[in-house]
Each structure stands twice: as structure tokens, then as C-alpha cells.
Amino acid sequence: MTETEIGKIAEYLALATDLRDNDPTDNYRRANTLSMDLAMNLPEELYRALGQVLVSDKRVDVFKLVVRIRKWWMGVDAGDVSTNDIIYHAPNIGEERKKKKKGGKE
Prior knowledge:
globular; about 0% strand
């Protein structure tokens, strides 16, 4: 598997985990294209894990899969990256952290 193919997994996870009912049809088409591509190229246990992650409402499950795929792809060179090391971006994602630092005060 090449870096480009690994990039497709990342793109699919980012797109499919955030798909909403009102998203443009093109987003669904891209997700379906990536899904079919991955169905043909990933080992079955990893492809099935993708599907399981999509029905989970826990972001940590996505991170666990990312770490699992990293270890599968890189083998011994994967290092010890854990779910706590995965960087994720979303609107207002840091707000809860800021509240905790301030003791819940705004």
C-alpha cells in the first residue's frame, strides 16, 4: 500500500465520520468512491473495522482505528503513537478544555 492509498483511508475517515444529512451529494459520492476503493484494497478485518467505527459515536474509536492502521502499514516503524497523540480539528473543540483550566468559569 502506498502513501497515496493510506491517504485515502485518512480522507475517508475524515469525510465519512462527519457526513450530515444536509451535506452536498458530492460529499456522499466521494465517500462512496473511497469506500469502494478501500473495500478492494484493505484487508477484510480493517475494512470491516472502518464500518464499525462509522456506527460508533465515540471519536476515540476512530483514533483507535487510525493507530491500528498505522501499525498495520508501518509495522515496527509505527512507534508508540497512541489515541492520545492523534490531532483532531473541529469548531470549538478547545472550549471544554479552556473551561476546565479556568475551573468552569468563563
